[in-house]
Design a protein that fits this description.
This protein is of the alpha/beta class. Helix content is 26%, strand content 24%.
Amino acid sequence: MKIQVIESTVGQSARHQFAVSYVINDTVAIDAGCIGFMHPIARQQRLSHVLLTHSHFDHIASLPVFLENVYSTTGVPVVLCAGEETQRAVQSHVFNDEVWPDLIRIAQTEPPFFTWQTLRESETFSINGLSVTPIRLNHLIPTFGFLIDDGHTSVAIVSDTAPVTQAWDFLNRQPRLNAVFLELSFPESMAELARRTMHLTPTTFLREQRKLKKDVDWFAVHLKATLREEILGDFSAISDSPIVVVEPGTEYSF
């Protein structure tokens, strides 16, 4: 399994993650914060499914541009996989003719830009040789993480979330779990803001780690760009736990 966090910057700051998109095995994306900006467009056109964790803007910012870039009047439309709450939010606040044309309405008379696939907690489905299980997280709005399994190994994407219990209970039962991508959004100096926005700091990140009773590789994602060095300084001051801070554009193989 190959996983890449897509670059969301222009220039020399690729290590900063401004918006969120993962690409798995070149054909499945998680979130659409920046997949619509990938170059060349052929990379976008290889994506057949986009799994949306939730509707916050850094996770859907490039979705309209992506759908325009991959639109075909003769091919199979891309599949957007999301919970019912996320579907309603995207339809109401993006595809509403004010922010972007209402693609659902247009599809009544034109070939569709996309189709919806409704996700439900713990209901596993298959796409492109992968088994995907939505995991309910603890965020400001209904949000899913995902367990991705290729039959040999599995990887968990756990972002965005405040401290959560049920997700780790589920992951503790997964025999092939090899790696976890976990958010690490704020430094300790902003712990109250992290609590209010339902994100993690180094302290709460470590507490979440301890809930998983498995030996896996840990990858930190979603670090606020202007706070990156403070976050990492706080983490190293309280732990020597081995983690990889994900570098956008780097491909990780499992």
